[in-house]
Design brief:
The protein has 283 residues and is an alpha/beta fold. It has helices at residues 11-22, 37-40, 56-69, 130-133, 152-161, 222-225, 262-282; strands spanning 2-7, 27-30, 79-85, 88-93, 96-105, 126-127, 141-146, 164-169, 181-183, 188-193, 197-202, 207-209, 212-216, 231-232, 235-236, 249-251. The structure holds flavin-adenine dinucleotide.
């Protein structure tokens, strides 16, 4: 069992990881090898101390160099479920279970509101994980919503299994070209069914008959991941020690609220790591 699991590879996750590494705690850090799109996309950053006028790409390279120099690796997996179990946490990442005594939630902010029916049908036809649930849809009709091209390999994996795939990329120039994949520029708005999902309504009014709906987003709402987590206006509630309402569970960065800034994310990641170290030492 790890001392900690860090979820999210932006500045908050990096700061948490650096401090846990310095204090020789064992941890696994989930996120993207590219760390965070929000760093890469910034044209020029003028409010990060010591690095005036730095470009996002350059800041990303500096962060990544720091990570590598400290011998820290990012496990490129998306966490889709967290379960508290007798004093520790079980975390499901791309169909594999990991366990840790503490959690650092550094997932950034989720801009997208869940689709109508998404939470109601999660586990009953709605899935966030192609690897975990793809096999249930062999020879069936499915829809896939995807908000980043980096998930297209998962769409292709699903296309190998399903009979027909309605594909909704939320970005230009989708790269999936398969006979059984219908790429659409329409937008899914409502998931319906009874025991399981049966239909998906699109913005145009078209209604698709489907057996399952995969939502491949680079962020999942905190309460969807961890049911009993206290959230206010979409942000995780924390105190000054970055403690959430759940023992051993800490949060840092944009996911705890405004202002959405690198320096705040890094500072909160630092505090979260120190609180984790104190919690582990007391245990
Ligand atoms: C265009 C742009 C310009 C900006 N300019 C500035 C600026 O000049 N100055 C400034 O201070 N701030 C700026 N910001 C804001 C800054 O980017 C954010 O405040 C900062 O990136 C937040 O860091 P974070 O670690 O909290 O989250 P993020 O950077 O959002 O990182 C979170 C990471 O976690 C991953 N993740 C989420 N859920 C999961 C999961 N379930 N499993 C695995 N991984 C997951 C995400 O994919 C992402 O990679 C800018 C943002 C944008 C978009």
């Amino acid at each position: 069992m790890y001392d900690a699991i860090i979820i999210g590879s932006g500045p908050a996750g990096l700061s948490t990881a650096l401090n846990l590494q310095i204090h020789e705690k064992s941890f696994v850090w989930f996120g993207s090898r590219d760390m965070s799109d929000k760093i890469k996309k910034a044209q020029m950053i003028d409010n990060y101390p010591g690095l005036p006028g730095i470009g996002g790409q350059e800041l990303l390279s500096r962060f990544d160099e720091h990570r590598a120099r400290m011998g820290i690796t990012i496990t490129e997996k998306t966490v889709t479920n967290i379960m508290p179990v007798s004093g520790h946490y079980m975390v499901l990442a791309d169909n594999e279970m990991y366990e840790a005594k503490t959690l650092a939630l550094c997932m950034g902010v989720v801009n997208a509101k869940p689709l109508a029916g998404e939470e109601e049908f999660l586990g009953r036809g709605v899935s966030y994980c192609a690897t975990c649930d793809g096999n249930f849809y062999r020879g069936k009709k499915i829809a896939v919503y995807c908000n980043a091209a980096k998930y297209e390999h998962e769409v292709e994996f699903l296309a190998d299994l399903a009979e027909e795939v309605f594909f909704f990329p939320a970005y230009p120039k989708a790269g999936v070209q398969r006979e059984n994949v219908r790429v659409s520029t329409d937008y899914p708005v409502k998931i319906e069914g009874s025991l399981k999902v049966t239909t998906l309504t699109l913005r145009s009014g078209e209604v698709l008959a489907i057996d399952g709906f995969f939502i491949l987003r680079n962020a999942i709402a905190p309460t969807t991941l961890l049911k009993k987590l206290a959230v206010e206006d979409g942000h995780i509630v924390v105190n000054r020690r970055m403690e959430t309402n759940l023992p051993g569970c800490y949060a840092a960065g944009d996911c705890t609220g405004r202002p959405y800034q690198y320096a705040k994310a890094v500072g909160e990641g630092n505090v979260a790591a120190h609180s984790i170290i104190e919690y582990l030492d007391k245990k």
